[in-house]
Amino acid sequence: MALARSANWPNKAVSPPKETSARIAEVAASCEEQSAQTAEVMRAAQNIAAITQETSASTEETSIAVVDLAKMAENLNQLVTKF
After folding, report:
1. Under a CB-based contact definition with an 8 Å cutoff, are residues 15 and 23 in contact?
2. Residue 5 pLDDT > 70
3. With left for phi above 0 and alpha for psi between -120 and 50, is residue 43 left, alpha or beta?
4. CA-CA distance, 10 to 82, in Å (whole number)?
5. Higher pLDDT, residue 27 or 17
6. What does the DSSP 8-state code read for residue 15?
7. Number of structural domains found in the chain
8. Domain span at residue 61?
9. For residue 2, is it within any domain?
10. Which of the four pLDDT bands, split at 50, 70 and 90, describes residue 17?
């Protein structure tokens, strides 16, 4: 009985070539999928960075406009108080 089991040992220890090829193909497909997903995440991160820059620029412009508007309001207030 032990001799029969040891005779089958090499067949169980090494996967058949077709099975090995199939597993290699699965790994390759998974790598391609992961690469595509990584590229998608990178594009999303770049979009977020661009939107952040746009928001920052808009905020700065709004801040300048608020300061200018406050100066105009002060000038108008001074003109109105003369009458």
Report:
1. yes
2. no
3. alpha
4. 105
5. 27
6. -
7. 1
8. 16-82
9. no
10. confident
pTM: 0.58
Lookup: tokens for 13: 């220890």
Phi and psi (nearest 5°) for 65?
-65, -40
Question: Mean pLDDT, to the nearest integer, of 1-24?
Answer: 70
6 in any annotated domain: no
Spell out the residues 6+ positions from residue 54 whose beta carbon is closer than 8 angstroms to its own. none
Residue 43: both structure tokens together? 């594009």
Q: CA-CA-CA-CA torsion for 59, 62, 64, 68, nearest 10 degrees?
A: -170
Q: How confident is the model at residue 63 (pLDDT cuts 50, 70, 90)?
A: very high
| In-domain check, residue 23 | yes
Residue 7 lies in a domain: no
Give the angle subtended at the CA of 46 by the CAs of 44 and 50, to the nearest 5°.
Answer: 115
Segment 70-79, tens digit of pLDDT: 999 999 999 9
- Which residue type occupies 74? E
